[in-house]
Design goal:
This protein is α+β, with helices and mostly antiparallel strands and about 725 residues long. The protein binds adenosine-5'-diphosphate and magnesium ion. The site of magnesium ion has 3 residues, from loops.
């Protein structure tokens, strides 16, 4: 008997890993790969007749309706391009309310009626698909007998090819709606919110005297954190592959306390994986830019350059899928769960967000003297007002059973949504409360004391990692977003609540006349917003107890769990904003709220199932075998006349009894059938989740004393450190 087979396999995988060159960045530059598998602007221009190209471009650039006449022409061009790249199938790719990507594949081949087949692809097939909608969550919007759902091509997000060893699939990004026209996906509200934001931002820019204003788009750059562990371990841990997180596991002797992992040298196997993932992502046109080691052992981060928010959301889904896919080629598993391991940091997704256009640039760019930059202040104040009024919604849209383990746990932002503006801007807002802002604290330079080092430009504000919503120079960074979730819903919310604030401001300003009067009106609205919404601005330590008390005094909601937060999805304030701009109706919002509860309930029940099962089939038998061994040892010693120390036997026996009792208790409370979804969720949150912890505590105590060679699951030490 020796160590566990999964450990041996993982050790051998780590030890015997040899570079196998699948991506030759050493020989060719990455630029040639970029967008290779995308039907992008350049290819459109090459392959489409001028008039069709112009028409399609107009739809993409201005949001105008697509001319039906060009559809067939575009479809033929896309088909020819796909077939030249050996595609056999096309797939409408959509994002149902499960939050993960769904795809329906169809072959290009159609029988020709004479025993052969030809490749067919019409405008209709490009523009519209019809997957059976009945098996996707609809939150009661649709009964199962009304199964029809439609996918509709999102013209603004380019088609792309997904390569597999045995073939190529041409993917079409689509929205997904029900037969009755209700949105059943995450993309539709994003598209609608982009439009609303454009319209309202244009009003404000017009007031500032701009003319011929190009479309204003939201931009997004999501930073993705993830864990990579050897796949042998992953497959040996049913909790990891079923629930996405470890539900058991004693603390390893070493965790992240040495702080030696963050930005550390990337291990060879991991770096090779990164190269290949990046190559795949380049081909798909995903502009990934940075990579580094994160704080926890075996945790990493990848971030793209920001893009149009809708495309960034699609790319973000592609990125998650690609990381998972490529990891397996390296014998690794990529974990996107927010808290796969207790005791070390979890993973998040920092969603960087701004808005701008081709003429005015980034509308959240303050320049060096923000106090004098009225237009910037208006857009910035609009964000402050939006987040203050809808902080509960932002919290609700990142809520999930898995993210609950991260938010508020002193490594991730707290569940209270506040805004960090930095010293300079916070000062400007303080001045605004009193009237006109007259000065901006200077940024300046920093001398490093060594003349060979360059003079560093010091930013006007430091970073604040404890803030859930931080201004970082020329964009806001929403840090409470979950690592495993789609960024679509938070994005749609940011765009919508921003549109609402811009609408409010534009309406006020439109009443004022031009010239001096206009400046005064801007001044007044800024002062009003700073006074009414300044409570959401907080530059201090978001982890501190004082902040929790202070936030309560300021009336900021502290929605600690998913159960507390989710109702805000369909609250009056949300419905008002979403209905005003035609983003989602009350019914659609209520459906989304119910689905969020449903997902929560299912997630916790699955975890409870796994815990009871693993205790019964793995942990208890292991402990009982050890108990028997100890008992036999005691008996043998007695016969041999040696005085036996029975303390270990007593301890193990005590833990076995405790484990049986706790597991029985879990099985009992899990049976509870509450009245309705919300009550069920509350029961799971308040009663079942803590009980999972109680069971775990006993198992972890056993892990610390049972023989290593018979322990049935890979340990934290193995999973986090063998690489
Ligand atoms: P950090 O958060 O460490 O300061 P960066 O400044 O590199 O990192 O930015 C992080 C992310 O923010 C990147 O994905 C970047 O592209 C994105 N970003 C930068 N500017 C904008 C913008 N105007 N709108 C949206 N995202 C942006
Ligand atoms: Mg960041």
């Amino acid at each position: 008997m020796s160590v566990s087979p999964s450990r041996l396999a993982a050790i051998s995988a780590a030890n015997n890993y040899r570079t196998s060159k699948t991506v030759a960045f050493t020989e060719s530059h990455s630029a040639g790969l970029f967008g290779k598998n995308v039907f992008n602007d350049k290819i459109m221009q090459q392959r489409l007749p001028k008039m069709a190209y112009k028409s399609l471009r107009k739809t993409i650039d201005t949001g105008a309706q697509l001319d039906a006449a060009v559809l067939d022409i575009v479809a033929t061009a896309i088909k020819d391009w796909a077939l030249e790249h050996n595609a056999t199938h096309y797939a409408h790719v959509f994002q149902p309310l499960t939050g993960i990507t769904a795809e329906k594949h169809d072959s290009f081949l159609e029988p020709d009626g004479r025993g052969g087949a030809i490749a067919e692809f019409s405008g209709k097939q490009l523009a519209q698909g019809e997957p059976d909608a009945s098996s996707f969550p609809s939150g009661g919007i649709r009964a199962t007998f009304e199964a029809r759902g439609y996918t509709a091509w999102d013209v603004t997000s380019p088609c792309y090819l997904v390569e597999n060893a045995n073939g190529v699939t041409m993917c079409i990004p689509t929205a997904f709606v029900s037969w009755t026209g209700e949105a059943l996906d995450l993309k539709t509200p994003v598209l609608r919110s982009m439009k609303a934001l454009d319209v309202q931002a244009q009003r404000v820019l017009t007031l500032f005297g701009h003319t011929n204003i190009p479309m204003v788009t939201a931009t997004a750059g999501p930073e993705q954190e993830y864990f990579l562990i050897d796949r042998n371990f992953y497959l040996a841990r049913p909790d990891l592959f079923t629930a996405g997180r470890t539900l058991f596991g004693a603390r390893p002797p070493k965790g992240q306390e040495f702080e030696d992992q963050y930005f550390g040298v990337i291990p060879d196997r991991v770096l090779a994986f990164m190269h290949e993932s990046e190559a795949e992502l380049y081909k798909l046109g995903v502009p990934v830019k940075t990579r580094h080691n994160e704080v926890a052992p075996s945790q990493y981060e990848i971030a793209p350059i920001y893009e149009n928010a809708n495309i960034a959301a699609d790319h973000q889904q592609m990125l998650m899928i690609t990381l998972k896919r490529v990891a397996r080629r390296y014998g690794l598993e990529c974990l996107m769960h927010e808290k796969p391991f207790a005791g070390v940091n979890g993973s998040g997704k920092h969603l960087n967000w701004s808005l701008g256009n081709a003429a005015q640039g980034n509308l959240l760019e303050p320049g060096n003297t923000p106090h004098a930059n009225m237009q910037f202040l208006v857009f910035c104040a609009a964000v402050v007002r939006a987040v203050h009024r809808h902080s509960g919604l932002l919290r609700a849209l990142v809520a999930s059973a898995s993210n609950d383990h991260r938010l508020g746990a002193n490594e991730a932002p707290p569940a209270i949504i506040s805004i960090f503006l930095g010293e300079q801007l916070a000062d400007v807002f303080e001045q605004l409360k009193l009237g006109k802002a007259k000065s901006s604290k200077a940024a300046g330079t920093m001398h490093l004391g060594v003349d060979t080092l360059p003079l560093l430009m010091r930013d006007a504000g430091d970073r604040n990692r404890t803030s859930p919503f931080a201004f970082t120079g020329n964009k806001f960074e929403f840090r409470a977003v979950a690592s495993g979730q789609s960024i679509a819903a938070p994005l749609a919310a940011l765009n919508t609540i921003m549109a609402e604030s811009l609408d409010y401001i534009a309406t006020k300003l439109e009443k004022a006349t031009k010239g001096k009067k206009f400046e005064e009106a801007v001044q007044d609205v800024l002062t009003e917003i700073a006074r009414d919404n300044g409570a959401v601005i907080f530059n201090g330590n978001g982890y501190s107890e004082e902040w929790h008390q202070e936030a309560a005094k300021r009336g900021l909601p502290n929605l600690k769990t998913t159960v507390d937060a989710v109702p805000v999805i369909a609250a009056k304030s949300t419905v008002a904003a979403y209905e005003r701009f035609g983003i989602l109706t009350r019914r659609e919002l209520e459906a989304r709220r119910d689905i969020a509860f449903e997902q929560y309930v299912k997630a916790v029940i699955v975890e409870a199932n796994i815990v009871t099962e693993l205790v019964a089939t793995k942990y208890l038998p292991t402990a009982i075998r050890y108990q028997t061994e100890l008992a036999q040892n005691a008996a043998a010693l007695k016969i041999a006349g040696v005085k036996a120390d029975r303390s270990l036997l007593t301890k193990v026996s005590g833990l076995i009894a405790e484990l049986q009792a706790e597991n029985a208790k879990l099985a009992k409370i899990r049976q509870h059938h509450a009245n309705g979804l919300e009550a069920e969720a509350a029961h799971l949150c308040d009663t079942v989740l803590p009980q999972l912890g109680s069971v775990r505590k006993v198992v972890d105590a056993l892990e610390a004393i049972c023989p290593d060679d018979s322990w049935p699951m890979p340990t934290y030490e193995e999973m986090l450190f063998i690489k």
